[in-house]
Structures are given as structure tokens and as C-alpha cells.
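Chapter summary example.
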Amino acid sequence: MVLLAILCVTLTVSYAAAAQDDEENYFTGTVVETAKDHLKISRVVQGKTEVRVFLVTVATKVEGGKLRTRLRVSVRFVTADEHDTATLVIIRPAKSK
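The structure predicted for these 97 residues follows.
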């Protein structure tokens, strides 16, 4: 019975940690530069501009249209060898006026 309780607590903690890691692997902003091998995204948070560059590979999926500058996107990425590689780019619809 004690073993089962320990197992449940361990699974709950590992699931919460995995969910937290997943939330941190998204970056939403505006496309500043796009090329075959990379994508540069900019966003402003609390008055500070953040710019990140994501590597684009053949495995990178793009949903919602064709990538071009000045589009609002969300990028899901993985970090390896100090490089962020985009795994999924979701193009957000333009706000209607």
C-alpha cells in the first residue's frame, strides 16, 4: 500500500514537471526575418523587446498558411546544443478591425 502511494506521488510530480516544461517551450511574437534555415521572432514583454532565432528543419511543421514577415506566430521548440529548433510554427489569424 505504501509503495502504491509513493508511486502515485512520483507520477504526479513527474507529470507536473513535464507539463511545466511543455509550457516553457512556446514563444509567441511577430516574424521579423524568415529564411530556409532559421526564423527570427520578436515580442515586447513589459516594455522590453525580446528577439529569438529558431532553427528550421525539414521536420518543422507550419500550420495556418505560408510564413512571411510581420505575421504573428507561436513557435513550439526544443533546445539542444544551445540552439532552439522549431518543431511547430502556428500562424495566428490577423485581428479584425
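To summarize the output: The helical segments are 2-24.
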